[in-house]
Amino acid sequence: MLSASDYRSILGVLRDCAQAEDTEEFRAAVLDSVTERLGYEHLTFFLGQHPTLELELRDPVTVGLAEPLIDSYLARFARDDVFATEQARTVLHLHGTACLPQLLQAAIAPPQDAYIENFLVPNGITDKVMVWLDTELPVHGFLGVIGVGDAVLDPRDAEILAELRPHLAAQLRRHLRLAAAHVDASPLTIREHQVARLVADGWTNRAISKHLDIGESTVKKHITRVLAKLGVQSRTELAAMWRPVMAHHTAAGSESPAAG
């Protein structure tokens, strides 16, 4: 059972995060406040699809140990993460959270064995809880709390995260909807819409150039104008803003993003 102090900390996190003005500020505020008020030092915050779909996590924001490891994780280990398995996605969908010890009780396939041996163990990662922030939109949030060394996440931690979950999900949903409204009202040309949609879906400039039959320099110019018109600084911010409306726009086609 949570104490009065625990609830004060939870309310403090929610107050801190409520000050954010957009999705990126909100995600940064979540990590900063959860670290300061709850003492969790190693965190990740991804955006991704509904957990019943393939758990394709993107646009990471990290603090602590996760920060220097994120590039290696994404390049070499994300596909075989224990939390990317069908079992983990089912647990997330049913309960809203999933924890590493719970998942390790099931039979582990060779790829996940390799992930544990080559990523978790060498980096001292002994525990992890993933929290699904259900936005009821095409884009969802996934907050990861990582335990290192002797730091074990106990039932109290799980209860704290469960209390935070619906409120953080509601705040993320609000930011994503505001971003979607901004995109719909933006003065983008038809071509800029096409380019922005492909960038948000992870396409490289080269792939966009080939798909739209325009030069790469032209693609870069379109992207520069899109970023300026939408008031964002990077492709990552563009993706976070754009994805909530992608379900309401015609898909760019069935092609997969080509290698750059």
Attribute tags:
Beta-Lactamase; 2 domains; Arc Repressor Mutant, subunit A; 5 strands; 260 residues; five-stranded antiparallel sheet; 56% helix; disordered C terminus; alpha+beta
Describe this structure in words.
The structure is a single chain. With 260 residues, the protein is α+β, with helices and mostly antiparallel strands. It has two domains: 4-177, Transcription factor LuxR-like, autoinducer-binding domain (Beta-Lactamase, 2-Layer Sandwich); 186-246, Arc Repressor Mutant, subunit A. The chain has eleven helices and five strands; from the N terminus they run ααββααβααββααααα. The protein has helices spanning 4-18, 23-38, 66-77, 86-95, 100-104, 110-120, 155-184, 190-200, 205-212, 216-230, 235-246; strands at residues 43-48, 58-63, 97-99, 125-133, 140-148. α2 packs antiparallel against α7 (155-184) and α8 (190-200) packs across α10. The longest helix is centred in the middle third of the chain and has 30 residues, at 155-184. It is globular, with a radius of gyration of 19 Å. The model is unreliable at 247-260 (pLDDT under 50).
